[in-house]
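Milestone 3.1: sequence recovery, worked example.
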């Protein structure tokens, strides 16, 4: 039985356009020739009206499993932003975990992919739809719309906060991860920003850099390693996310190293974890909900605007100061 996707491919238009034409949506901006061509192709392919979809169907692809998402508030908040915004367009949303498309029943009109993906995984997505928006994975150079966080200036502002206190030895605990198929290694852009800026200031030292895997356990282990290896621990650490920072904080407390009196910590993401630990973490706030909403807006334009061109959006960050850093008196 012919599907909307089959008709769209033959007519060289998007599935969403076919769906709206066959549902007699007179607000759709297409030429009469295009509208007539779609209807004619549908008739030639014996398209059954009973198979029409009443809604545009969007797949929300997440690289984590559902249980892993519960432990990662960052991606959970992105999803909530997507689901809230998508209601405005009356799209049907299908959730897919671990990039597993076997759960899809029927056609989909577009994809929002949150997470990190290998070339092979992206190629697999394209078999289901060419209309893909990526969140937190820079696929812009491959022709896809991409929504990202500003890492560069957020990290620089946190480092400047320490440098303004004349702290020149600043450590970092950062992460490295792989796509779920293991075929792509994802470097931590926060580390790249840290390294470039500290080198620019003539202050970069490899011995102050500790690489983990973004988990609380890893943050704990890497800070324990720093305490063991370094004769003099840096007076400040930038740490790539809140769970790692919470783990690092525990290691410092076990070693009777006071935060922020002996060592200050600036974290990244500003999830609820930052406010649950003691002392509470200063953290760079990321606009996770807005990232999800922006992806939906981009997908809507991609589906409905024949003149759409790919966008690369970087959302700004904000420094949130709490108890893990010292208050600096302004002169």
């Amino acid at each position: 039985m012919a599907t909307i996707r089959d008709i769209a491919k033959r007519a060289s238009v998007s599935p969403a356009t076919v769906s709206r034409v066959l549902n007699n949506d007179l607000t759709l901006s297409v030429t009469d020739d295009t509208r007539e061509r779609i209807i004619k192709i549908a008739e030639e392919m014996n398209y059954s009206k009973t198979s029409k979809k009443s809604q545009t169907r969007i797949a929300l692809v997440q690289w984590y499993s559902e249980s892993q998402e519960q432990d990662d508030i960052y991606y959970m908040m992105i999803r909530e932003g997507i689901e809230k915004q998508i209601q405005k367009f009356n799209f049907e949303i299908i959730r897919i975990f671990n990039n597993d498309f076997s759960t899809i029943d029927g056609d989909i009109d577009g994809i929002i992919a949150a997470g990190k993906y290998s070339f092979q995984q992206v190629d697999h997505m394209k078999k289901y739809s060419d209309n893909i928006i990526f969140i937190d994975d820079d696929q812009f150079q491959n022709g896809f719309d991409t929504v990202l966080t500003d890492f560069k200036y957020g990290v620089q502002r946190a480092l400047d906060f320490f440098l303004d206190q004349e702290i020149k030895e600043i450590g970092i605990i950062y992460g490295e991860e792989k796509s779920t198929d293991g075929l792509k290694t994802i470097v931590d852009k926060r580390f790249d920003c840290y390294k470039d800026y500290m080198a620019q200031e003539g202050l970069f030292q490899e011995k102050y850099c500790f690489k983990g895997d973004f988990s609380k356990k890893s943050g704990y282990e890497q800070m324990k390693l720093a305490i063991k290896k370094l004769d003099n621990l840096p007076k400040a650490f930038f740490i790539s996310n809140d769970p790692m920072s919470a783990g690092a904080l525990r290691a410092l407390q076990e070693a009777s190293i006071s935060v922020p009196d002996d060592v200050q910590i600036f974290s990244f993401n500003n999830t609820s974890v930052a406010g649950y630990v003691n002392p509470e973490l200063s953290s760079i706030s990321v606009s996770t909900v807005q990232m999800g909403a922006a992806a939906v807006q981009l997908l809507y334009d991609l589906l409905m605007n024949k003149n759409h061109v790919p966008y690369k959006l970087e959302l700004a960050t904000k420094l949130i100061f709490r108890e893990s850093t010292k208050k600096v008196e302004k002169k």
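The mean pLDDT is 91. The longest strand covers residues 57-62.
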